[in-house]
């Protein structure tokens, strides 16, 4: 009986196992970790100091070479002594970057869709902005200054006073020419020496696994061919 069908089944099974393992690596590698963080805002308003603690949630969705960032508030942080008519209040905020990047990302909300009664917390809702990474690595996003613009002026400017932790950790990978580590202290340039920084992301692990699987398949095929030739003699 020919052993060819058995060899084909073994090869197919090994190929499938490598493919499944590679998919598992990709599926199990998180690109972002979000956490709802309580932010204690101290607000300077036109009617004196205000303040409140609001849980803040920050998320990122890949959009081409950039990310759409959303910042959501579960509670209002200030109120108004007078009614705010529909469409007169717009919130905006700065998100402080850390880790592999620095600076801020600006996010902005939409005007209020309904009138806000006096002496009630102003609903901030969801603010949206765009983040374009400059290099590979883990980037953190932390709630910064929140500004409530109403009735043609900045009615409240709120700053976190409890030193909140990041609400989002985003793993940026796949940027061409991106760097996972800062340049050497002496100012050396990896590109000028032709060196390539090591790649340690989940995608690279999957590619390495696929390469290993391909090597195993080729080695197995070579062994089968050698045994076949010896038998034929």
From TrEMBL:
TM spans (from-to): 206-227
All copies of domain Gram-positive cocci surface proteins LPxTG, residue ranges: 197-233
Name of the protein described by the UniProt record: Peptidase
Family matches, as PROSITE patterns: GRAM_POS_ANCHORING (PS50847), TAT (PS51318)
Alphabetical list of Pfam families matching this protein: Gram_pos_anchor
Keyword Secreted applies: yes
Keywords: Cell wall, Membrane, Peptidoglycan-anchor, Secreted, Signal, Transmembrane, Transmembrane helix
UniProt superkingdom: Bacteria
Species for this entry: Streptomyces flavochromogenes
InterPro entries per UniProt: LPXTG_anchor, TAT_signal
Region (Disordered): 161-202
Signal peptide boundaries: 1-34
């Amino acid at each position: 009986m020919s052993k060819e069908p058995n060899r084909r089944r073994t090869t197919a099974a090994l190929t499938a196992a490598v493919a499944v393992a590679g998919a598992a690596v990709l599926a199990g590698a998180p690109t972002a970790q979000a956490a709802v963080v309580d932010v204690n805002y101290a607000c300077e308003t036109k009617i004196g100091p205000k303040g409140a603690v609001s849980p803040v949630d920050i998320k990122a969705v890949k959009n081409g070479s950039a990310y759409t960032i959303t910042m959501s508030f579960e509670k209002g942080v200030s109120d108004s002594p007078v009614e705010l008519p529909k469409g007169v209040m717009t919130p905006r905020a700065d998100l402080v970057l850390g880790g592999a990047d620095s600076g801020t990302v600006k996010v902005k909300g939409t005007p209020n869709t309904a009138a806000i009664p006096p002496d009630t917390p102003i609903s901030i809702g969801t603010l949206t902005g765009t983040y374009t990474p400059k290099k590979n690595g883990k980037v953190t996003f932390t709630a910064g200054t929140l500004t409530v613009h109403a009735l043609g002026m900045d009615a409240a400017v709120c700053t976190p006073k409890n030193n909140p932790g990041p609400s989002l950790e985003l793993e940026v990978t796949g940027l061409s020419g991106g760097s996972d580590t800062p340049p050497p202290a002496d100012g050396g340039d990896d590109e000028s020496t032709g060196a390539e920084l090591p790649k340690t992301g989940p995608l690279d692990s999957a590619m390495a696994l696929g390469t290993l699987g391909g090597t195993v398949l080729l080695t197995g095929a070579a062994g089968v061919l050698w045994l076949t030739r010896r038998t034929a003699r």
